[in-house]
Specification:
Blueprint (H helix, E strand, L loop, with lengths): L2 E6 L4 E5 L4 H10 L6 E5 L5 H13 L2 E5 L2 E5 L10 H6 L6 H9 L1 E5 L3 E2 L2 E2 L3 H9 L3 E5 L2 E5 L7 E3 L5 H11 L5 E5 L5 H12 L3 E3 L5 E5 L7 E4 L4 H12 L4 E5 L7 H9 L3 E5 L2 E5 L9 E2 L11 H7 L6 E5 L8 H8 L3 E5 L2 E5 L8 E3 L3 H13 L2 E6 L2 H6 L3 H6 L5 E4 L1
The chain binds uridine-diphosphate-N-acetylglucosamine.
The site of uridine-diphosphate-N-acetylglucosamine has 20 residues, from helix 1, helix 5 and helix 6.
Length: 416
């Protein structure tokens, strides 16, 4: 069980950059199965989740070569259509492979992703969408077996704009007969990245980024090279890390449009922000101001950023309220922050944070990926040595976060 050891209380200043997006890479890597040929992906972040996706693709029969952030996937020999329970448990988002396997091979077997640290992760909307496409979905001893003779385009209205369900339905429809419309689709930028990748591979998808997506089935796809978009949550996390220390940063490789809701909140908290093309220059005040945040589907404030703002606001002046509307159990990190002296109260879907002047360093745990990132923010703020245990969660989603922060003045070491 490895830990981060953070010597906190240091002002961060300098220049750093954002890596490729985790949440865009995973569905795009899954989508390469549709191609039955070579896909060259660039800007894939070197994190545990993409490593795990490579393992799963290999198990299904893909040949995968990795060279830094370049990943070449040859999916011409996929011969297994089942994602084992063991792998599903290791990475819940592997459910995204179902859409590609069914779309290409008319069959996929997987198990329920089950609950996790941020609440239950149902897939009812994915399965409802599959059924509407004419796919038979059977459940057998916890396994979900999807089969079909043909997938026929149709209209699907999602009850909620789920990111994963939108992506899975797109993937299942790319090679379908006829046209599929997804209404009340999720509008997250990662879905647009998936659309751009698919279209470059020869698919015919339009509307991603709006709440109606149209997928016109095609017969054949072709080899493709694609550059994955920057990670908007990593961008937000690095900006908050700097803002929390009263620092200053020039952050490169940012898609500004994607992080507008994050930048607005940082400005409201007192930061000065100047944007250039793909670069954010942030200067933070000595002490941030309290703000209120409500998480919403894109283009609202992202749920993945709430724990990070939650930690940052612990030392802001005034009382902040954060309301979580997407996941049911995303405040576990609050307990850990309390152990560092934060004045946080969980009240149903909201947390109330009374800003204190400082946090105290101690031993804390990463409760999940974004909860773990919030501990890093708290550790940077607190004077003295903070130990964060269970950093495997953090490493799932952040590429070299210790090195990037150390490059702008932090002191973070990994204890193996
Ligand atoms: C994706 C992101 C995750 C982000 C989330 C919301 C990836 C790999 N992960 O997760 O980082 O926090 O979007 O922006 O891209 N729901 C159902 N039934 C379903 C599917 C979802 O009830 O069939 C509910 C979920 O329980 C949750 C909400 O819908 O409460 C949002 O989930 P969803 O948008 O599907 O998130 P993910 O795709 O799992």
């Amino acid at each position: 069980m490895s830990s981060f050891i953070i010597e906190g209380g240091k002002r961060l200043e300098g220049e750093t950059f954002v890596s490729g997006s985790k949440n865009a890479s995973l569905p795009i890597m899954a989508a390469t199965i549709l191609n039955e040929g070579i896909s060259k992906l660039y800007n894939v972040p070197k994190i545990e989740d993409t490593k795990m996706m490579i393992e799963i693709l290999k198990e299904l029969g893909c040949k995968v070569k990795k060279d830094g952030s370049k990943v070449v996937i040859d999916s011409s020999n996929v011969h297994k259509f089942e994602i084992s329970e063991n792998l599903m448990r290791k990475m819940r988002s592997s459910v995204i492979l179902a859409g590609s396997l069914i779309g290409k091979y008319k069959q996929a077997t997987f198990s329920y992703p089950g609950g996790c640290d941020i609440g239950s992760r149902p897939i009812d909307l994915h399965l409802k969408g599959f059924k509407k496409l004419g796919i038979q979905v059977q459940e057998n001893f916890g396994k979900i077996i999807c089969t079909t003779d043909s997938i026929v385009g149709t209209e699907i209205n999602l009850d909620f704009p789920s990111v994963g369900a939108t992506e899975n339905i797109i993937l299942a429809s790319v090679l379908a007969e006829g046209v599929t419309y997804i209404r009340n689709a999720a509008r997250e930028p990662e879905i647009e990245d998936l659309q751009n990748f698919l279209n470059k591979m020869g698919a015919n998808v339009e509307g991603a980024g709006t709440n109606v997506i149209k997928v016109e089935g095609v017969n054949k796809l072709k080899e493709v090279s694609y550059n994955i978009m920057p990670d908007r949550i990593e961008a937000g996390t690095l900006l908050c890390a700097v803002a929390t220390t009263g620092g200053k940063v020039r952050l490169k490789n940012v898609e500004i449009e994607h992080i507008k809701p994050i930048l607005d909140k940082l400005q409201e908290a007192g930061c000065n922000i100047e944007n250039e093309k793909n670069i954010v220059n942030l200067t933070s005040p000595k002490r941030l101001k309290a703000i209120d945040i409500t998480t919403m589907p894109y283009p609202g404030f992202p749920t993945d950023m709430q724990s990070i703002f939650g930690a940052m606001l612990c030392t802001a002046s005034g009382t902040s309220i954060i309301t979580e509307n997407i996941f049911e159990n995303r405040f576990k990190y609050a307990q850990e922050l309390q152990r560092m002296g934060a004045k946080i109260k969980v009240n149903g879907k909201s947390i109330i944070i009374k800003g204190t002047r400082k946090l105290y360093s101690t031993k804390v745990k990463a409760t999940d990926l974004r909860g773990g990132a919030s501990m890093v923010i708290a550790g940077l703020m607190a004077k003295g040595t903070t130990e964060i245990e269970d950093i495997k969660y953090i490493l799932r989603g952040y590429e070299n976060v210790d090195e990037k922060l150390n490059g702008i003045g932090a002191n973070i070491k990994i204890l193996l």
